[in-house]
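Sequence design from tokenized structure. All designs in this work follow the same two-part layout: the structure record, then the generated sequence. An example of the structure record is given first.
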């Protein structure tokens, strides 16, 4: 931890923030964030924490965008930073953002739902650290990152909010949250700002909470116990027949009411939708690798045919020409399959 981070953590040790607002967004979410942040007051009695899915090696200028949009100060979160009310902390690309009481830390741990930072991890850490004082917000995005974390916030007595799917550019994330979590408010982005301001201005009413154990710890314990049982030759009944797209390890299927998640012993975790998406990407990569191999096979066969022609080996020349033709035919067929798959995916997203 840097000296500056130590100083920030020490200086805010006694500044307990009344509420932690955690916001998750993906595709189309930046526009919603701008509209939301623009309406938040400068004296907001809460800190705001944001995860937006960015490429791990991309450069995020989201804090600069938010600083131009509203009156709250926005910055990238730093490991060990203290937390101040009236500030916005954005997860930097390539790092999970997690919360403790009055401090935050960054993790380069395994990706969840194919993302780092992952919305679910931020939400779960907020539920553990702030319990009924955590407010989770799911904005525009594809698939369903944030649903499991929002459900944990709700189970700890916190507030669950989703952007109106009819307003969201990509409605999958808010629709998943609404379908699986007992949502308190479904609102357009600008109205979410108003309800947040109202909620954090209300007197604190702590509710009795269940034992403080996060879902990620429960999942890790299930996987570790079943792995140990399997190593001892005992029956492990949670291991699935599916392997992890990230590392190739066995995935354990973990059910929580209607929510199904998969987790490997390394720590990669997936919802059902994100696992299907990752597998589709793996299939596409494999098909493109096959196209490349077939085209290289055709090129080599043409080179051998040319060599045979120079040696006046007509029969061998024809054999290699035929091999080149078959390889090209197979490569073109795979290209057509990839093209049709892409068209079907675009159609599904549009519908």
């Amino acid at each position: 931890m840097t000296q500056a981070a130590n100083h920030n953590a020490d200086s805010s040790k006694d500044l307990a923030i009344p509420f932690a607002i955690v916001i998750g967004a993906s595709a189309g979410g930046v526009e919603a964030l701008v509209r939301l942040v623009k309406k938040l007051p400068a004296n907001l009695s809460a800190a705001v924490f944001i995860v937006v899915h960015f490429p791990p090696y991309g450069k995020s200028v989201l804090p600069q965008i938010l600083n131009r949009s509203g009156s709250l100060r926005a910055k990238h979160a730093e490991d060990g930073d203290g937390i101040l009310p009236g500030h916005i902390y954005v997860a930097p690309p390539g790092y999970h953002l997690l919360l403790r009481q009055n401090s935050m830390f960054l993790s380069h741990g395994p990706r969840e739902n194919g993302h780092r930072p992952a919305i679910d991890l931020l939400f779960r850490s907020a539920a553990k650290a702030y319990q009924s004082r955590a407010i989770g917000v799911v904005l525009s995005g594809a698939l369903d990152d944030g649903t499991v974390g929002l459900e944990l916030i709700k189970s700890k007595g916190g507030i669950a909010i989703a952007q109106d799917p009819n307003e969201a550019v990509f409605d999958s994330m808010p629709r998943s949250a609404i379908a699986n979590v007992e949502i308190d408010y479904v609102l357009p982005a600008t109205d979410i700002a108003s309800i947040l301001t109202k909620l954090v201005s209300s007197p604190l009413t702590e509710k009795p909470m269940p034992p403080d154990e996060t879902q990620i710890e429960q999942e890790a314990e299930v996987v570790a116990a079943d792995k140990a049982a399997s190593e001892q030759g005992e029956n492990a009944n949670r291991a699935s027949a599916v392997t992890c797209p990230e590392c190739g390890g066995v995935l354990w299927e973990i059910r929580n009411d209607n929510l199904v998640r998969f987790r490997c012993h390394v720590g990669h975790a997936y919802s059902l939708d994100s696992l299907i998406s990752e597998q589709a990407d793996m299939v596409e990569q494999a098909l493109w690798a096959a196209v490349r191999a077939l085209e290289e096979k055709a090129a080599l066969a043409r080179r051998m045919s040319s060599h045979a022609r120079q040696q006046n080996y007509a029969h061998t020349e024809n054999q290699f020409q035929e091999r080149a033709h078959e390889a090209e035919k197979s490569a073109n067929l795979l290209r057509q399959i990839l093209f049709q798959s892409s068209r079907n995916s675009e159609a599904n997203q549009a519908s």
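The first helix runs from residue 3 to 11. We note this feature because it recurs in several other targets discussed in the main text.
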